[in-house]
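Weekly sync notes, structure subgroup
Attendees: PM, AL, DS (notes)

Item 1: joint prediction request from the bench team. They want all four components modeled as one assembly rather than separately. Inputs as received:
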Amino acid sequence: MNAHLMSPGEVAARSGMAVSALHFYEREGLISSTRTPGNQRRYRRDVLRRLGFIRVSQRVGIPLGEIREALATLPESRTPTKQDWTRLSRGWRSHLDARIEQLERLRDDLDGCIGCGCLSLRSCTLNNPGDRLAEQGPGPVRLEV
Amino acid sequence: MNAHLMSPGEVAARSGMAVSALHFYEREGLISSTRTPGNQRRYRRDVLRRLGFIRVSQRVGIPLGEIREALATLPESRTPTKQDWTRLSRGWRSHLDARIEQLERLRDDLDGCIGCGCLSLRSCTLNNPGDRLAEQGPGPVRLEV
DNA sequence: CGCAGACCTCAACTAAGGTTGAGTTCGATG
DNA sequence: CATCGAACTCAACCTTAGTTGAGGTCTGCG
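Output from the run, pasted for the record:
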């Protein structure tokens, strides 16, 4: 029972991912598999949790590269525990908060501009190149959608 | 003064868009231009407002195709008024609200799952294929980013 | 007029996140 | 042992939103 490895088809069925996506994630280093003597992939059960994490992360808006980095912090020596997954999930929380905050600011700005009707390239919060340049100062702008 | 048409370089400088982006938007039908006898583009001043609208819309997360559709509702016979732009901007407000709401739900779900540590493919709100299928029922899932 | 810099078109390329298809091989069942 | 679905690899393609480069033309200033 410990040695129950899953075939690609089984993983696809249980995770809802396409087999082609499994191949892709493996090429990208997000998951891994062993091979049968006949060169077919076999997955350990915890791949399902990884795929779960990948999907949730994508919903949060994290690009695959960062998801890979997060997954890389999992211990290789043992199967990840609940605590491991909790730690990773908690890491996205701030991303999500920042994103929500940004969209709320955008909404408020949009309301202001609906009032002023401007969309002006000068002077409009929503649309000022100068401000955008300023915003780009600290940190990446990935959150900007 | 009425006949002041802008060159691509001037529009690029004033809008912050690259000239290549102006070409692209024109190919995609989001903006238009007239030509000099020597085949160079000249833009009416209101192209700046269009570009402003395009940028704001992209910040809201609207794909170019939909932005084009929105711009297509502007009257061709006259220069768009402040009311026209207000109408379009207001249209995005609900998109933004829906998006924010969705992210807030996601955040709450994530909190729940940080508690349960699950990321389980069954039974976890964050990660249930059945639920995702249900969600996909009405309308596109573009907001899900 | 001459020349630099801005502009033209068209094709190809980028990035992310995969999907699709062709041609071939495994592996489990009858 | 034949067969058929599932799996394999590799290359090509898809979408979105543009950028880059090659090769050629305009426009305006001196």
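Discussion: Chain A touches chain B through 44 residues (CB under 8 Å).
Action: AL to compare against the crosslinking data before next sync.
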